[in-house]
Design brief:
Elements: H1 2-22, E1 29-32, E2 36-38, E3 42-49, E4 66-83, E5 86-101, E6 105-109, E7 113-116, E8 119-122, E9 126-131, H2 158-164, E10 171-177, E11 181-183, E12 188-196, E13 200-207, E14 214-218, E15 227-231, E16 234-248, E17 252-256, E18 260-270, E19 283-293, E20 297-302, E21 317-324, E22 329-331, E23 334-346, E24 362-364, E25 368-376, E26 379-392, E27 396-400, E28 405-409, E29 414-418, E30 423-428, H3 447-455, H4 478-506, H5 508-532, H6 536-555, H7 564-573, H8 578-596, H9 604-622
Parallel strand pairs: 2-9, 11-20, 22-30
Antiparallel strand pairs: 1-3, 3-5, 4-5, 6-9, 7-8, 10-12, 12-16, 13-18, 14-16, 15-16, 17-20, 18-19, 21-23, 23-26, 24-26, 25-26, 27-30, 28-29
Length: 624
């Protein structure tokens, strides 16, 4: 027994000793910060190291051009993962500074240095653009209706004060186009971007333009990340609302009509109720709806040049063509396929099958089309393949005329015609005719002659005949009636189910209520990603969207009408315990304070766990 314990202890010591060696990855020391900040805006600069540094080895930069408000705040942690017997160890060591820039310009945070096991590592210089928003026209300090909350009239309500704090340029919706002058059929990309300078709880009442005169293809924007941009001298948080690939279908001046939506802005207003002698007055959060729309955008569509080739069918872009015949030797009355593959980038959706001319003794059938088309921000790419099946009815040697495909290349501003080499096909006598094949000398065969040839007696089958006894017909048998009744019952059940689903789908409130938990889970996942990335502002913003959005969808309450009081009343009416209702509203208040107060002590992990637990409890209580 003692020997077994000794072996276990020895194995544990080996694992502990081997762990750091197996997790010893390449040492990385990096600096990160916002690329754009405003004069007087406090922001964080983080120096992240994936190893344990030597004590006292960190040498911070001079931060020339910045004032240091706080720091360095040190956070460190480690984790060990064992997957299929393989153990890896990771270490995170982060130093955080809070800086503020006092003047506009392009400033640089100099490299910082740190030592690990005696070896020194340095970060790269960190460029930061500092923008003076106070000098921009229409800034919040001078914008109408936003001239300071302290000048409110005594009789003005808190709601009006909240509305007055939202500037006319705090929320913008822009339509950004990749180009404003294109040829007919040449693609352009339009991106509808949201610009935010205030906290937004959500969006509603979407309206996307109809794109008259364009063929539109919506692009996937799920992976689009939020970014900081400078517009009209002000810094905005930007996100992509929609993105489309547009193909103009007519020449002239086409207009991209405005897109519209309503943003629900959350505004915190100080109140004088329940004044605390230490902390002062409390605050209320109001949801202010703000309707925004993008400006109209004019697109100049140039007509295609004159002198288009005879086979041109409207293809615009850059293409290549391949042709293929399975074999150059074919027996009479045998089938074959002539394949044409057109690949490239452009309006592939509108590419039509080129015309194929075969000899008169060939019987040609309908063209089969297959395609593989990929849509991205750069355009539509892929291929369209056309298969021309035919039957050669008469022997001989035939030169098959090549197909011709013409397209317009906007980069070269000219028409291009693709024409492959001609193909020669040798048709041998039909093996089933005993060597006596009908051959018409001196001319090709007409369609009528080919049709009659196909109806002639070709061959007499030899060998033993395989005869089968006649089967009893299925019609009006017992199996027939059983199948008929089963089909009727299945149709009735399917009809009733379909009617029920149609009624439920028409009930918008019911659909939103059923999807509330699913939408909240998706937002919690996004919040968790921000939490793992240590993005506190984005984490609390996403947590608030998850909590407010769940209540709005579950109880069919517009986001603009949500308050903590009516949330507690609605939860109590649905049977939720009073303490859980109080926890729910307290969690919302905690997220609000942590989002707007840099000194908030809320831990993201605890906030995330409380939010998931509360939604689960409320969902289970309501479903009883």
């Amino acid at each position: 027994m003692k020997g077994l314990i000794a072996k276990i202890v020895l194995a544990a010591l080996c694992i502990v000793a081997w762990g750091p060696a197996s997790g010893a990855d390449k040492v990385v020391f990096e600096a990160s910060s916002p690329l754009i900040v405003a004069v007087g805006e406090a922001f964080r600069v983080e120096f992240a190291l994936n190893a344990k540094p030597d004590d006292g080895s960190f040498a911070p930069p001079s931060f020339e051009g910045f004032d240091v408000l706080a720091g360095p705040a040190v956070s460190e942690g480690s984790s060990i993962r064992i997957i299929n017997g393989s153990m890896t160890k990771s270490v995170n060591y982060t130093l955080t500074y809070v800086l503020v820039a006092n003047h506009a310009g392009n400033l640089t945070v100099a490299p910082a240095a740190i030592a690990v096991d005696g070896e020194t590592y340095r970060t790269r210089p960190l460029p930061i653009e500092v923008v003076d928003e106070g000098a921009a026209p229409g800034s919040p300090a001078t914008a109408p209706g936003n001239s300071g909350g302290g000048q409110q009239q005594p009789q003005q309500s808190a709601e009006n004060e909240a509305r007055g704090r939202v500037g006319k340029d705090d929320i913008l919706l822009r339509a950004v186009v990749s180009r404003t002058s294109v040829y007919k059929g040449e693609p352009l990309r339009v991106t509808f971007k949201l610009y935010e300078r205030t906290n937004v709880a959500g969006y509603q009442d979407y309206k996307v333009p109809s794109f008259n005169g364009f063929w539109a293809q919506q692009l996937n924007t799920d992976n689009a990340r939020r970014q900081r941009e400078t517009y009209n001298g002000k810094i905005y948080e930007t996100s992509v609302a929609w993105e489309y690939l547009l193909y103009p279908q007519q020449a002239g001046t086409l207009v991209i009509e405005p897109a519209e939506l309503t943003a629900v802005v959350q505004v915190i207003v100080q109140n004088n109720r329940n004044i605390d002698p230490f902390f002062g007055g409390g605050h209320d959060v109001y949801n202010v709806p703000v309707k925004v729309q993008s400006p109209r955008v004019n697109i100049t569509v140039k007509p295609l040049p004159t002198g288009a080739p005879a086979g041109f069918s409207g293809a615009v872009g850059h293409f290549t063509m391949e042709t293929k015949l399975p074999t150059q030797r074919l027996a009479a009355n045998s089938a074959a396929t002539y394949t044409v593959k057109i690949s490239g980038t452009g309006n592939l959706t509108f590419v039509q099958a080129p015309k194929l001319t075969l000899p008169g003794s060939f019987e040609q059938y309908n063209v089969k089309t297959t395609e593989s088309i990929n849509t991205s921000a750069s355009g539509i790419s892929g291929y369209r393949q056309f298969e021309y099946p035919f039957i050669a009815r008469s022997e001989g040697t035939y030169d098959i005329e090549p197909v011709a495909f013409s397209y317009f290349d906007p980069s070269r501003m000219e028409y291009v015609t693709l024409r492959p080499e001609p193909l020669t096909l040798e048709v041998t006598p039909d093996a089933g005719s005993g060597g006596e094949t009908v051959v018409m000398q001196g001319r090709g065969m007409s369609k009528e002659e080919v049709r009659l040839l196909g109806e002639d007696i070709r061959f007499i089958k030899l060998g033993d005949a395989r005869l089968h006894a006649p089967r009893k017909p299925l019609l009006f048998s017992s199996l027939y009636w059983a199948l008929l009744c089963g089909i009727l019952l299945a149709f009735t059940a399917a009809y009733a189910t379909l009617r029920k689903r149609i009624r439920e789908s028409q009930n918008v409130a019911l659909v939103r209520g059923r999807r509330a938990n699913k939408v909240a889970v998706q937002r919690f996942r996004t919040a968790r990603k921000y939490m793992e990335a240590d993005d506190r502002h984005a984490f609390y913003e996403e947590m608030l969207r998850a909590l407010w959005g769940y209540v709005s969808d579950k109880f069919n309450i517009p986001v603009a009408n949500l308050t903590k009081e009516n949330v507690r009343e609605e939860l109590h009416r649905r049977g939720v315990a009073a303490d859980e209702s109080q926890r729910f509203t307290a969690l919302i208040a905690q997220c609000d304070e942590a989002q707007y107060s840099p000194a908030a002590s809320a831990r993201t992990g605890e906030v995330y766990a409380d939010g998931v637990d509360l939604i689960s409890r409320i969902e289970s209580t309501i479903k009883r």
